[in-house]
């Protein structure tokens, strides 16, 4: 089984420095691209690989790049922004890549920036990722010293600067347009789309925002080809995926596995199954803002299409496991507290709807719930749905609630009937 | 034009508009908060949800926000769709989770957009049972009250204050449902347009503190259409009255003059009208004796003894009095004996302005045209202080470049956040050439600081660079030459260039230069814009009467030619040197003064007559654009106070002369016949005989309450309605209210729309002109042929004089205008008189910022506080001008400067 993304990563040591990285085959993609591929060639191979964004939305990366206007003279400078904000609760896959192999990301950023003809790239890094920041800065320095960054890279005439920007720390900064606004030094409020960042992004210039894991695939696709990449997956979707698991499993962690690895295999084989005395009640497959998968669907293939078919989303592919000794209402109350607090405050449904949801859940958990509360919660699931709010924050917040109300309704009703939490 | 389908019916729409705009323009009641016609769409409140269908076959559709959806051809939407309707009610329910429901004690109540929208959506029953969040409110200065708990977070305040008006000290803080709109700490809101927050805020977060001081509901106030008297722009206002006092000023939309916004001087300057120290009865003061109050009859008997128009009586008019008042005085004393009541230098400047508006192939633009300018030169005028509303328009003009970029990216203009994001650093070129820093410097492509003569020289160099047949300017520095070339290139490349100047510096050379640049830019394809700011609300109207200056008037008396002087709404001590005015008082045998504010001239006059102010009389003013606009009476004094023209008519009648003026319309007719410049003046507004279906327009809302009790502390009788013979207004609750001529709209109100946002219902299309066109009539249009009378050679370069400084007047938004300075709220904002020098000059005098400094203008000594202004040219000082208690000085003028001992 190939694990291209994590091949250089070992938990027991510092990441490879540039010499080690080069020795392991690093920067070959940069040499190849700058040595004779046009930006269109790069976009073409990435498009053919059918790589889909690993940040959660799954948008085809090659298509995203191809939407960038080609004439820099008319549009002004282009930008590549690496979304390394990884604020999704239960998600720590990008951290693994950032801390474990920073040169891989830098190489990927060079190739991607070349493909969209950006002369500047920003890595928008989650503020708390201190080791990642240190390692990235170190690696950028090394890369620049070797001539992989700066002016006239490897004599190709192509210039690129990479800057690391550490986030002030809001969940909404992971939303690509809010990220851009924050990067400009303004309040992290999302932007209306259209215009899309590819035409009017950072400082109004054409910009591509890519997730860390997405980008890390790029050097390997360039080196090994689109077909190789497509063959890595178990099903229709290509590549590998860094899956993770948290909750009361025996071995929480993150693993690079073929795209489409079944959820049951992930939990049983890699996470070691449930801890003794705990039974699995549900799984959030890709971070807190995805819908529950129940035990009957545990064999689902963890790729975009299969997870969507059973009413959830692959998201970040890092699963959160709910066990039978944890109150689902409490778990959802905690989740909605997070989402309510992280609302940027821009649009009414999200800003004022989520706190109401949170208070209803807190009330139910405290034994003060009323039967009508479930109706109000159900209504919010629809009212905070896609199109009704300004961005995807509130719809994301409703995903676990909607599925929770569906699958754990009896638990909600028991709270209200007994006027107490059965788990308390 | 596109065709869109709303609930199965076809409507035409402009595809450049969004659906909300289109729905509102077609009369649909679609609720909204964050959208504003002048601010565009941002999609924050989610209130204007509708269902959109992809095609006729699509029965499912999807919920979209009307304000964020373009009105492209074949758009199909439903407003009445149950889910969309329900969603809109839910938005209100969410907003209400934290709104305090304090309508009974909230000053917005009764004219609250949130109330209107709540009723419109049908949300009535409250399901949220948890606690509300609370905020601490801030002190924001004398104009605005802050009550953050009412906030529904529509973001309009910060979008207006920061994005539109360029303010920096109000922002949104914190996040989620704890967002807070305020300053970083308590303090006065600094932006000169802060008062608009009162109207921009859809609920009671920002309310009018001056109204609050003697609060009344909208429905309990009489309102009339009025025109601001606090500068020469002539913004249209709606004045509200109760109990004989002006209670507040609101913006009255006029797309050609002020659009949606007023400056703070205009909004809060009305306080002078309620001055309790004002004389309300005639006063007769025997020479050397004390004044005594007199009855009207007694006074008129005294006035009957005045000479006729025989050369022994002169009249001094006023640029802050109506055309009719000035014309009445001119008629009473004779045209030859009528003086304009402004200084000779100001008269000369105004003559250039009048010529500038009438000559050549240039146009004085309307507000809309100013906002569309694609290159602007501000030459020697501190427009932010002398004509602030124009400065706000220029702030929008510089956005032109970013809108071009948005066009290229196919971003609709109403997509406000996207347009601003697309080109954050793109400004259309705006150049500011002035002696000192101005309020537009932050958006200027380049600024240049110079003495007035050097400004005129730079102007001449710009003209030469545009048109090489014009004379070059010798001896200009390389840097200035380069700047002139740069400015000339930007202006010449523009499709709609705009030159802005004015009388602020008192420099004829600067005005000539501005006119000449505009002239040079004109060609068969391009009519450049020329804005020349005039000092006061009727400066231009008075200038059109082409009368002598105040120096002329003083000379006429001190030379022994005339012995009797009638002074109309004019404090001579603000217009001429103290010595000269004192000499006038000494030489004249009788001085009659008419005014509505207590002034030194009124206090010294032999006979002082209580005149009506702008709110107590009908009158016509001519703004800097040359637009004649009528303001109407809303306050009805029950004593001897009456309009100046009535006093003057009564004097004539007492003398046995018959002016045959029963109404203002009679005066207007005489004026139009007497002076050709005013031939069109009657078109400013319908005549007093105007009726709709036999009815007058009512100025009190139909819910007006307590009219039988309003005077109960004085009399138990219901006051008689003050109905003028010839007026389109009933001045009561009775009468017509509905579609009406734009110049007569007393207040904005429509069924279901109690707030000022009901303006939508009075416009052709939302954001467009009022139905029937923008109020007022332009008296002056360029004839297209006569070139500007410009001086052939620019002045010599400014040379500093060692030991003396050229002191240049500096107008202040708060304080330099006489009437608003008497308003308590404005008075709080007036800074003490100061003189500014550059640091080197200050050092040479061994003085620092804050030190007391003495300026000697010949024998006249003035004490001020020094401020250091790094940008000032060497040898030039600026001095605050026209502040209360500041004597008039001939500025610009040379002065010696020295340290003064601080006055204890």
Shape of chain B: globular
Order of helices and strands of chain A: HHHHHEHHEHEHEHHHEEHEHEHHHHH
Number of strands of chain A: 8
Report on the biggest sheet of chain B. 7 strands, mixed
Rounded average pLDDT of chain A: 96
Derived structural class of chain B: alpha/beta
CATH superfamily of the largest domain in chain A: NADH-ubiquinone oxidoreductase 51kDa subunit
In DSSP terms (H or I, runs of 4 or more residues), the helix count of chain B works out at: 26
Determine and state the CATH class of the largest domain in chain A: Alpha Beta
- Please, how many domains of chain A? 3
Strand fraction band of chain B? 15-25%
Helix content bin of chain B:
25-40%
Poorly predicted runs of chain B are: none
The CATH level-2 architecture of the largest domain in chain A is identified as 3-Layer(aba) Sandwich
From the N-terminal CA to the C-terminal CA of chain A, the straight-line distance is 45 Å
Tell me roughly what share of residues is in helical segments of chain A: 40-55%
- Given helix and strand content, the structural type of chain A is alpha/beta
Query: What is the approximate shape of chain A?
Result: globular
């Amino acid at each position: 089984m190939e694990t291209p993304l994590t091949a250089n990563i070992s938990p027991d040591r510092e990441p490879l420095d540039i010499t080690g990285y080069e020795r392991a085959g690093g920067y070959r993609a940069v040499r190849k691209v700058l040595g004779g591929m046009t930006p269109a060639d790069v976009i073409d191979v990435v498009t053919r690989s059918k790589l889909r964004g690993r940040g959660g939305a799954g948008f085809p990366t090659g298509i995203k790049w191809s939407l960038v206007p080609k004439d820099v003279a008319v549009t002004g400078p282009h930008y590549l922004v690496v979304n390394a904000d990884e604020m999704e609760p239960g998600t720590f896959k990008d951290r693994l890549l950032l801390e474990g192999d920073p040169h891989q990301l830098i190489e990927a950023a060079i190739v991607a920036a070349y493909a969209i003809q950006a002369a500047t790239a920003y890595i928008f890094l989650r503020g708390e990722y201190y080791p990642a920041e240190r390692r990235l800065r170190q690696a950028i320095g090394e890369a620049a010293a070797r001539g992989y960054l700066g002016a006239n890279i490897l004599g190709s005439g192509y210039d690129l600067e990479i800057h690391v920007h550490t986030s002030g720390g809001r969940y909404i900064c992971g939303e690509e347009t809010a990220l851009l606004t924050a990067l400009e030094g303004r309040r992290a409020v999302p932007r209306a789309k259209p215009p899309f960042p590819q035409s009017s992004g950072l400082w109004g210039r054409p910009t591509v925002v890519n997730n860390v894991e997405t980008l890390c695939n790029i050097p390997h696709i360039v080196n090994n080809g689109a077909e190789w990449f497509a063959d890595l997956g178990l099903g229709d979707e290509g590549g590998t995926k860094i899956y993770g698991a948290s909750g009361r499993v025996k071995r929480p962690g993150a693993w690079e596995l073929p795209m489409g690895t079944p959820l049951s295999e992930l939990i049983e084989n890699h996470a070691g199954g449930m801890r003794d005395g705990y039974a699995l009640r549900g799984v959030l497959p890709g971070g807190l803002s995805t819908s529950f998968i129940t035990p009957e669907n545990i064999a689902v293939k963890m790729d975009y299409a299969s997870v969507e078919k059973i009413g959830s989303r692959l998201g970040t592919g890092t699963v959160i496991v709910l066990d039978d000794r944890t109150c689902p209402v409490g778990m959802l109350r905690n989740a909605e507290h997070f989402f309510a607090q992280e609302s940027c405050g821009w649009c009414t449904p999200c800003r004022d709807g989520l706190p109401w949801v949170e208070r209803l859940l807190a009330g139910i958990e405290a034994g003060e719930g009323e039967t009508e509360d479930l109706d109000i919660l159900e209504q919010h699931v629809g009212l905070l749905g896609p199109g009704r709010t300004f961005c995807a924050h509130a719809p994301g917040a409703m995903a676990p609630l909607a599925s929770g109300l569906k699958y754990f309704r009896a638990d909600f009703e028991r709270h209200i009937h007994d006027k107490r939490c059965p788990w308390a | 034009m596109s065709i869109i389908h709303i609930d199965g019916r076809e409507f035409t729409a402009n595809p450049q508009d969004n659906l909300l705009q289109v729905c509102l323009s077609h009369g649909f009641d679609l609720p909204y908060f964050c959208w504003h016609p002048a601010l565009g769409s941002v999609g924050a409140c989610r209130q204007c949800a509708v269902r959109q269908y992809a095609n006729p076959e699509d029965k499912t559709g999807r919920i979209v926000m009307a304000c964020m959806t373009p009105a492209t051809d074949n758009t199909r939407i439903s407003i009445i769709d149950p889910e969309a309707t329900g969603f809109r009610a839910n938005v209100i329910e969410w907003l209400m989770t934290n709104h305090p429901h304090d309508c009974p004690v909230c000053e917005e109540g009764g004219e609250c957009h949130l109330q209107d929208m709540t009723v419109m959506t049908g949300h009535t029953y409250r399901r949220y049972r948890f606690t509300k969040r609370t905020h601490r409110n801030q002190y924001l200065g004398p104009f605005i009250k802050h009550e953050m708990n009412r906030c529904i977070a529509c973001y309009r305040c910060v979008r207006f204050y920061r994005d539109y008006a360029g303010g920096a000290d109000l922002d949104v803080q914190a996040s989620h449902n704890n967002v807070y709109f305020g300053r970083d700490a308590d303090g006065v809101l600094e932006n000169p347009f802060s008062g608009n927050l009162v109207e921009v805020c859809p609920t009671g977060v920002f309310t009018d503190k001056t109204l609050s001081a003697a609060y009344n509901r909208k429905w309990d106030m009489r309102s009339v259409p009025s025109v601001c008297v606090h500068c020469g722009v002539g913004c249209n206002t709606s004045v509200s009255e109760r109990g004989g006092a002006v209670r507040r000023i609101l913006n009255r939309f006029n797309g050609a003059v002020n659009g949606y916004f007023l400056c703070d001087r205009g909004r809060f300057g009305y306080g002078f009208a309620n001055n309790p120290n004002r004389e309300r009865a005639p006063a007769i003061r025997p020479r050397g004796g004390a004044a005594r109050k007199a009855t009207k009859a007694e006074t008129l008997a005294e006035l009957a003894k005045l000479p006729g128009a025989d050369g022994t009586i002169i009249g001094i008019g006023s640029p802050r009095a109506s055309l009719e008042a000035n014309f009445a005085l001119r008629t009473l004393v004779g045209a030859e004996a009528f003086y304009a009541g402004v200084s000779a230098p100001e008269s000369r400047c105004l003559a250039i302005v009048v010529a500038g508006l009438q000559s050549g192939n240039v146009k004085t633009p309307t507000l809309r045209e100013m906002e569309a300018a694609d290159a602007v030169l501000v030459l020697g005028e501190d427009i932010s202080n002398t004509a602030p509303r124009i400065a706000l328009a220029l702030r929008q003009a510089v956005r032109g470049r970013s809108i071009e970029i948005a066009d290229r990216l196919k971003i609709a203009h109403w997509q406000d956040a996207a347009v601003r994001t697309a080109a954050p650093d793109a400004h259309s070129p705006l150049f500011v050439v002035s002696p000192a820093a101005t309020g537009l410097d932050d958006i200027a492509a380049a600024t240049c600081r110079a003495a007035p003569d050097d400004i005129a020289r730079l102007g001449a160099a710009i003209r030469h660079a545009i048109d090489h047949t014009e004379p070059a300017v010798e001896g200009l520095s390389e840097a200035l030459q380069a700047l002139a070339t740069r400015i000339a290139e930007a202006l010449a490349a523009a499709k709609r260039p705009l030159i802005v100047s004015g009388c602020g510096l008192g420099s004829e050379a600067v005005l000539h230069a501005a006119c000449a640049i505009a002239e040079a830019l004109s060609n068969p394809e391009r009519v450049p814009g020329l804005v020349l700011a005039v000092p006061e609300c009727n400066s231009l109207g008075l200038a059109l009467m082409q009368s002598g200056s105040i120096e002329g008037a003083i000379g006429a008396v001190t030379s022994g030619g005339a012995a009797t002087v009638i002074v109309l709404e004019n404090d001579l001590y603000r217009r001429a040197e103290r010595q000269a005015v004192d000499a006038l008082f000494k030489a004249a045998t009788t001085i009659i003064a008419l005014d509505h504010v207590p002034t030194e001239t009124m206090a010294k006059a032999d006979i002082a007559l209580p005149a009506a102010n702008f709110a107590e009389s009908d009158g016509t003013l001519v703004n800097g654009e040359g637009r004649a606009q009528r303001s109407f009476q809303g306050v009805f004094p029950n004593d001897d106070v009456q309009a100046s023209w009535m006093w003057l008519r009564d004097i004539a009648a007492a003398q046995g002369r018959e002016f045959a003026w029963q109404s203002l319309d009679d005066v207007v007719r005489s004026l139009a016949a007497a002076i050709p410049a005013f031939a069109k003046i009657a078109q400013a507004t319908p005549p007093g005989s105007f009726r709709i279906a036999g009815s007058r327009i009512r100025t009190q809302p139909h819910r007006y309450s307590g009219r039988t009790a309003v005077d109960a502390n004085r009399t138990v009788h219901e006051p008689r309605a003050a109905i003028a013979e010839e007026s389109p207004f009933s001045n009561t609750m009775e009468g017509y209210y509905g579609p009406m001529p734009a110049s007569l709209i007393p207040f904005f109100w429509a069924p279901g729309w109690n707030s000022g946002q009901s303006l939508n219902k009075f416009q052709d299309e939302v954001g467009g002109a009022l139905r029937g066109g923008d109020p007022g009539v332009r008296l002056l249009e360029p004839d297209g042929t006569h070139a500007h009378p410009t001086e052939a050679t620019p002045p010599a370069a400014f040379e500093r004089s060692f030991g003396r400084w050229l002191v240049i007047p500096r107008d202040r938004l708060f304080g330099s205008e006489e009437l608003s300075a008497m308003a308590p709220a404005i008075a709080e904002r007036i800074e003490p008189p100061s003189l500014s020098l550059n640091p080197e000059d200050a050092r040479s005098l061994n003085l620092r910022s804050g030190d007391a400094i003495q300026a000697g203008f010949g024998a006249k000594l003035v004490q001020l506080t020094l401020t250091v202004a790094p940008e000032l040219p060497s040898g030039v000082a600026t001095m605050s001008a026209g502040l209360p208690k500041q004597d008039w000085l001939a500025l610009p003028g040379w002065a010696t400067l020295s340290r003064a001992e601080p006055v204890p």
